[in-house]
Amino acid sequence: MAEQAQSSHHQELVGFIWGIADKLRGPYRPPQYRRVMLPLIVLRRLDAVLEPTKAAVLAAKVKYEAAGLKGEALEKAIAKVAIGGDRQQPLYNLSQFTFRSLLDDSEGIASNLQTYINGFSPKARDIFDKFEFFKEIEKLDENNRLYLVIKEFFTKGKEVDLSPQAISNLQMGYLFEELVRKFNEQANEEAGDHFTPREVIRLMVNLVFCEEQDIFQKGISRTIYDPTAGTGGMLSVAEEFIKRQNPDANLRLFGQDYNPEAYAICCADLLIKDEAIDNLIFGNTLGVKDAKNKGNNFTPHDGHFDKRFHYMFANPPFGVEWKPEEGFVKDEYKNQGFNGRFGAGLPRINDGSLLFLQHMISKMNLPPEQGGEGSRIAIVFNGSPLFTGDAGSGESNIRRWIIENDWLDAVVALPNQMFYNTGIFTYIWLVTNKKAAYRRGKVQLIDGTAHFQKMKKSLGDKRNELSEDHIAELVRLYGDYQHDNTSLVMVDGEAQSRVCGKIFENREFGFLKVTVERPLRLNFQATAERLARLWEQSAFVSLAVSKKRKDQQMMLFEVESGKTLQGEIIEALRGLDPDRCYLCRDLFVKDLDRVLKRGRVKVAAAVKKAILAALSEADPTAAVCRDKRGNPEPDSGLRDTEIIPLPVGIGLPLP
Hints:
Elements: H1 2-21, H2 34-50, H3 54-66, H4 71-83, H5 109-118, H6 122-131, H7 133-142, H8 146-152, H9 169-186, H10 188-191, H11 198-209, E1 221-226, H12 233-245, E2 250-257, H13 260-272, E3 280-282, E4 311-314, H14 326-336, H15 353-361, E5 376-381, H16 384-387, H17 394-404, E6 408-413, E7 427-432, E8 442-447, E9 453-459, E10 462-465, H18 468-480, E11 485-491, E12 494-505, E13 511-516, E14 522-524, H19 528-532, H20 538-541, H21 552-573, H22 585-598, H23 605-614, E15 616-618, E16 640-645
Parallel strand pairs: 1-2, 1-4, 2-3, 4-5, 6-8
Antiparallel strand pairs: 5-7, 6-7, 8-12, 9-10, 11-12, 13-16, 14-15
């Protein structure tokens, strides 16, 4: 009954806050509501948390300042008074205002609200800076909405009570995450940039912890990391999953993101739940070379370069260029190799998702066989990291490195139309250096493309969703670990049994690409038709092109000289017997040199090569063309490649 009451109160608050947001209509479009409402919700919660100690904090401020305390010493002393015995994270406000007292001065509400925000402790104030909330305050005030919206929080009989007595830190976290989800769904054209559907995250989390028993030991200490943290959904869901089953687990959350609003939301969520935000970094995880100082604590490189983690989750942007990071990444690749993050290779510039996976692999704990605790990774990709790149390409080398090290545990194919900004198929990769013995040397593939239900209302490109039953079934397939494992799926409204799980040896993903060459065989003949082909050869045409653009007289001289040489070459070639077809290149070259010498025509190597190209044709009956060392020359037009699977029993990694 208590849980039902909490859930009912939760939904009432969500509905009421959503109703307040409608007061913004006009100056704001619905996708823009979050710019105002999320900072205000954070503000209301922090205000409610600090209300019981507000008078004591102001008195302590006067006392400590009179005693000469300044800077960090003053902040620590004030924080102890403000926090009391319930909170762990420093939080206080030194202004004279409260959220409610702002309504006492309708004319000065904008400047008073800014003063109130500036009175917060540094970490809280930074959140509002990242929200760029002062811009919204000015806009709200100019459009006569600021007083109206704040007043709605205190409507008689419908007051938004976000105090710890009314809603716990955990419940407040759920409420805030629900509002973030709803506001992001309204802005579905942008949501995919930093928002992953919650059911996809739940699936990732369940898969990662499926075979983890240590995590449920009382007092266990573990770290969770997301290098593309966004609004913090993956961190929050992972934490929630563990805490529900092991409330005494000691979890530390780490993350980094370069989107200021997403970073602010993530920090706000943790601060609201009284969790540390020191381990969240605002900055570019991959790194930016020669980054300009943005003056807002932006970190232009990996903010956790010296750390390793137990569990890692990520949804890097799909198909996004990494040009801004190119200089930094290439420098690290060139100078550090495998001592850095990107030693296995670099993907093509239009999709940097495999860079994030290499980054995460570099942060794995040592495996158990080396005395470490190992790590587990879940990352969402589109099809590009799976299929793009021929043998020897950056993508192929990265995949080879991962599989040869036996880190790829499983790949789960998700249904299409699961994300807000793309309808394409997506895949969850599970990567680990602590495989169970029966999983070693193998990769599990799970087909989850038919495990979904249609949404009642689509959200952008998202039309499908995973139910709890679908998540449970996909986790079952993973946990059963059976080749040709079947599952009941709905196809055209009918339940069908379909093979949804397969297991392959690592070597079955490896192939040798063999180039098959055939010798070059050409005949040569100085017919009128072939002589005309000289004008198709760039080296021959360029003889009458001058680069002396600034010296007109010299340019004309070079052009005329070139035309004269072209004529002399053609005239000399007419000295060859047009009816004779040479089946040996060496014999033809001897006669070619003879007529050029007789005509006193000297040609560069490139022009001679152009003559041979124009006067030749492929001929399987001709003699093989050989280089200066006597080796057969390959015919690029007949070149072919064969893909040969690695043989059974071959050892990995390959030499």
